[in-house]
């Protein structure tokens, strides 16, 4: 994970504190290429191109129903990506006409990625120039160069944070509905063309990457004063856990909806509504009020809207997989840094019951699938896959979860925020800035 520094005053784009400057310069030798930005942009481009290709196939075949839903889900995801980046950087307040132009044509992530790559190479040249300076050159020019290096590093780190926010938003508010719908089409018409396979592959990669980001954020929140690095075995365990959990959950949802058609909507709506309303019910029961430490330019209406967006994303994550954190609107720190085993067990218990109910409905009312296997075998395999994902989760939290002092790196203890979009929303409404 790339490290990032505390965000400076939003109104002063060049304002970086002396402490932040010392932190940046102290780590300049370990500046790494922002691979996370490139990977997020790759997923964005792959899902966009494949969705447009599948849309064109449906249009040529005159499948208006599939075509309309595909392009609709595509636009929801891609618009949210643009809004996330613009909101994160406050482009509307800073009057960045050129960037707004690219975002209007849905090219904002690509342009920003290219800008980061260019700035990274410029930064390397500035670092080389600084190394050539002698002790005699400790002049105003040298100090200006050092200041430019600080701002360049800070800008790259902030872009990494923004793109990870975009990846999580894209994964659970764009890729999940798209993957469920395309898999539903596949099971309904029992055809699997190459274009749809590419779209489903990119959607699954996007969801898995977003889920892994949730895990890395939760780990860093638990040890917010220590730099945590995941080893290969830990990362592989998380990836296997998330792949099994997400694929089994989504396939079960698709088989359930394909069995009951429109009759499945009430059940799924109730499940999602419970996830969405649960934090608000807890907020109401606690008798808490809206945050008192809001910024001067925030008002109650804006605060409530931000909290609704936070809860929506939180519910979307938990509908697909374990979010690795717990939302608590009744407290200033709205993300519980140390979610206990009770909450984790409760979540997986309810998910397991839901999956068993949905797979039982498929077993009783379902029809032959694309795999041409008996319903009992498919149902058993899906339940076993979900149980295996729980097993890998228990393995990770019991034996592989980074813990102080054996897996933490004590030599670097400054806070390094790396925010998912709903944590960033929290900072906008005056809440504690969650670190990662």
UniProtKB/TrEMBL annotation:
It is found in: Membrane. Keywords: Membrane, Transmembrane, Transmembrane helix. InterPro entries: XK-rel, XK-related_adapter. It holds the Pfam family XK-related. The keyword Transcription regulation does not apply. It comes from the Eukaryota. It is a multi-pass membrane protein. GO terms for cellular component: plasma membrane. The chain crosses the membrane at residues 33-58, 65-88, 100-120, 165-185, 197-218, 304-325, 377-400. Its main location: membrane. Belongs to the XK family. This is XK-related protein. It comes from Sciurus vulgaris (Eurasian red squirrel).
